[in-house]
Write a structure and sequence with these properties.
mainly beta; twelve-stranded antiparallel β-sheet; disordered N terminus; single chain; 26-stranded antiparallel beta barrel
Length: 843
């Protein structure tokens, strides 16, 4: 794998010009598809040639920057001779003009014409693209910025700092030539030379060419060249191109993909990158699986402004089938991510995901956490936030594939939805605060054996009144609200949806009490730090009444699971702080592999293993000397009414507002007063350590309902991570009197479902490390006793090229049992050969 200094850029054959698959600049477009707005991309000029390289005569400026007056040129040397306009410079001669410097042992300079002749250790450097030329002899005109050099070694996008090189471009390259002609301010022609992105004089790969035409800020066209590795000729090209600009984007064919799989067979792929304009591009291609068929894919990106973008992805497989008789697992998935900010505080977002079948995702997605995700969510909204008031118009579609059987899917649609709400606001000059939440929505739901009307109307209104008080360090907040929800359909006793309007009314009151926090600063020091312990208690009493028709309410989302309740919630938060003895920056350690992690940032997603993308860098307190080492929160509820106003159905899993606000684990299958104890523990002793343990302990059942532990540790170049996700879903029984202690009754069917999965990862090195790096990631199902997933990846990087090898295994039941062998051989600024994609790498 290449270092991050060298993004991938490929070359082309014949008349085709090849551009990078990825760029540091995201080329995106607005997500205002909800409003059907067409935005015209504005011109981006950050990558155009510098004014120093030319300007328009219409602007009243000279055609070139070379029209320099004599007093604008600075010359220096150990000794100088002057005869009219002719200067002869001896010893460490230098001519400074504009942004360029010409150096040599001996220089003859004509101040009248700008012509100079240089001999011995000739160096020409400078310009907006950091051009650097070394030669034995050269003639050069400082006004025309043209000349001829012999026995040349040069570079573009590299700046010398003493004896060290500093890259100033994402696409630097080096060249040599018997003769190099500079024909203009930004144009070079190299004869009988080489081109490479490796440091000279011993490049690991290079083009040996008869002629190279370099347009600084554009491309380097290489004619009649031989591509070689370590001096060994590999391929002949009549024409090839390299980027010679800081952020290149050009249209052209990509280097083909090659790979192999035990299920797909031999994999061959080709694609085209199309740079539509400065704010738009597209990537279109296909792969051929010898054992399965064709897999077309594409991506369109656009960005008309810095606050709007669109990213459209398509992937499909035209599957011939697997097994005997052949089973077709083909399908397609389309993803659209778009966002745009408009005037008057309006913002539009579209996150749309279309999946033709869950089997297709299981069989062909090469990212494990995505392959096993059975949910498909789509949402598009236009929102406005003004002075604490929120207005939102949206469309949402949710699908949950219950199994791999075709049609076994729950689909819930919100189309359209209109919501308005506000933050707490003072009620006149009184101590009271008011807020509201209201929604008018069109809904539908379908699943095997059940469906609602195509459009079910739901109207929800909830005004709220509160009185925040502070008394001697105590915080007290009584709150009162009314809620009225109307539906155009209801759930009949037969289990079907009938067109009979229903209205649900609820009266809710609550009191939140926060006593003063207890704190203790410990005397002395431990491990070079001072320590402080803080305890923050909290109690909330909540009472809801009036929901007497809960069994008749259709279920679409969280608005529909409100029940009567009489409950007390109590929690205790422990925080342990440590303060360094001095203001010295914290030791964050060496880079390690920040992209290789278990868990990551605490953002909830569908699985505990992939909570959003990894942080670019591990958190490190380089400023403040105080760190919160331990955070431990304990929460539990006591239900005064264990039946929730009669809404609870014994023997079945019940999800109410009171329970889902506490934990995502279902635990209500019978009347009970005490909820499980919810424990959330987070430990960050340093920037290199991250441990989190989430536990739901059920005192009624006498065991764990759920336990998720995530641990990551980096020491030097080594990265270690592990995790375990344990879940016991309460079983359902056949009798209404089912309780937890009835599992021994032979007349009661009580089958709890167990899930226990382990993850382990090890890594050495990182993506920017030269030399050897390796990582492995393993997923094991302890309940079923088999390896679900495993990946091993090794890389060896040089300064300008690298090779990566990977073995990956999937074992996803009867749908997929696959071994993949993937590789990438990458050349800096040239491209990569293989099928190990950047988004699917371990590091």
């Amino acid at each position: 794998m290449l270092t991050s200094r060298y993004p991938s850029v490929d070359f082309t054959l014949g008349e085709f010009v090849r551009f990078p698959m990825t760029s540091r600049t995201r080329f995106l477009i607005t997500a205002a598809l909800v409003c059907h707005l067409l935005l015209v991309p504005s011109l981006v000029t950050s990558q155009l040639l510098s004014p120093a390289t030319g300007s328009s005569p219409a602007q009243g400026l000279p055609d070139t920057p070379s029209a320099l007056k004599e007093d604008e040129v600075t010359i220096s040397a150990i000794t100088q001779e002057k005869n009219g306009p002719i200067y002869k410079l001896h010893g460490k001669a230098e001519i400074h003009y504009g942004v360029y410097i010409l150096r040599a042992d001996e220089v003859t300079y004509n101040a009248g014409t700008g012509q100079s002749t240089a001999d011995g250790h000739v160096v020409l450097e400078g310009g907006p693209n950091d051009e650097h030329i070394q030669s034995s002899h050269g003639t050069y005109n400082v006004r025309a910025e043209s000349g001829r050099f012999e026995n040349v070694t040069g570079s573009i996008g590299v700046r010398m700092r003493g004896t060290r090189l500093m890259l100033t471009s994402s696409n630097p390259f080096f060249f040599t030539g018997t003769v190099v002609e500079k024909t203009g301010p930004d144009h070079y022609t190299v004869y009988d030379g080489t081109v490479t992105t490796c440091e000279l004089p011993h490049p690991r790969w290079q083009f040996n060419a008869n002629k190279v035409v370099v347009s600084v800020g554009g491309t380097a066209k290489i004619y009649h060249s031989t591509f070689g590795i370590k001096g060994i000729p590999i391929l002949y090209f009549p024409i090839a191109t390299l980027p010679a600009q800081r952020l290149p984007r050009q249209s052209g064919f990509l280097i083909p993909n090659i790979g192999t799989s035990s299920v797909k067979g031999t994999i061959l792929g080709e694609s085209l990158f199309w740079a539509i304009n400065r704010s738009m591009d597209a990537h279109i291609g296909a792969e051929y699986f010898s054992a399965r068929g064709w897999a077309p894919q594409g991506e369109f990106r656009a960005q008309p402004s810095d606050s709007s973008f669109v990213d459209l992805n398509y992937f499909g497989v035209l599957d011939r089938g697997t097994g005997k008789p052949p089973v077709n697992q083909g399908g397609e998935e389309v993803r659209l991510n778009a966002e745009g900010a408009f005037g008057y505080n309006f913002r539009g977002v579209a996150n749309i995901d279309y999946l033709s079948s869950f089997v297709f995702r299981l069989a062909f997605n090469d990212v494990f956490t995505q392959a096993v995700n059975s949910e498909v969510k789509s949402e598009a909204f236009l929102s406005n936030t003004t002075r604490g008031f929120f207005y939102n118009a949206s469309m949402q579609r949710y699908q949950d594939f219950e199994s791999t059987t075709a049609g076994d899917v729950i689909t819930i649609l919100h189309a359209p939805s209109f919501e308005v709400s506000s933050v707490d606001r003072p009620l006149g000059h009184s101590p009271f605060y008011w807020s509201y939440d209201a929604a008018a929505e069109g809904l539908s739901r379908s699943e095997p054996g059940f469906s609602t009307a195509d459009l079910v109307g739901r109207f929800d209104l909830e005004p709220n009144l509160s009185l925040p008080l502070k008394l001697g360090g105590w915080s007290l907040r009584p709150e009162f609200s009314l809620r009225d929800t109307s539906y155009t359909q209801q759930l009949a006793t037969t289990g079907s949806a009938e067109s009979d309007p229903i209205n649900r009314r609820a009266l809710e009151g609550s009191v939140e009490v926060r006593p003063p926090a207890l704190s203790q600063v410990f005397a002395g020091e431990f491990m070079g730090r001072q320590w402080k312990h803080v305890i923050e208690p909290r109690v909330i009493y909540r009472y809801v009444t009036g929901v007497n028709n809960f069994p008749d309410i259709l279920r679409f989302d969280e608005r529909d699971i409100l029940t009567d309740t009489n409950e007390v919630e109590y929690s205790l938060v422990n925080r342990l702080y440590a303060k360094r003895r001095s203001n010295e920056p914290e030791d964050c350690g060496k880079p390690g592999m920040p992209s290789l992690f278990i868990g990551g940032a605490p953002v909830p997603t569908h699985t505990p293993w992939g909570r959003q993308s990894a942080p670019a860098e591990a958190p490190c307190n380089t400023g403040s000397p105080v760190r919160e080492i331990v955070t431990w929160e304990l929460t539990q509820k006591y239900f005064v009414d264990p039946t929730f106003g009669g809404a609870l159905v014994s023997g079945r899993s019940n999800a109410f507002t009171s329970t889902v606000d506490l934990t995502g684990t279902s635990f209500l299958t019978a009347p009970r007063h005490l909820s499980p104890l919810i424990s959330r523990l987070r430990v960050q002793a340093s920037a290199r350590t991250d441990v989190e343990w989430d536990v739901d302990y059920d005192f009624v059942r006498g065991g764990l309902n759920a336990s998720t532990i995530l641990a990551n540790y980096r020491i030097g170049p080594f990265t270690v991570g592990g995790g375990d996700a344990y879940l016991q879903v309460p079983g359902e029984c056949a009798h209404s009197f089912c309780m937890y202690n009835t599992a021994t009754d032979p007349n009661v069917i009580f089958w709890p479902q167990l899930f226990n999965q382990f993850r382990l990862l090890l890594g050495y090195g990182h993506s920017g490390k030269q030399g050897f790096s390796a990582a492995t990631n393993v997923g094991f199902d302890a309940n079923l006793g088999f390896l679900q997933y495993a990946a091993v990846q090794t890389s060896y990087d040089w300064d300008c090229c690298g090779v990566s090898l990977e073995f990956r295994r999937f074992a996803l039941g009867s749908v997929r049992n696959e071994n993949q062998y993937r590789f990438t051989f990458a050349l800096a600024n040239l491209g990569s050969l293989g099928n190990l994609r950047r988004t699917e790498r371990l590091f």
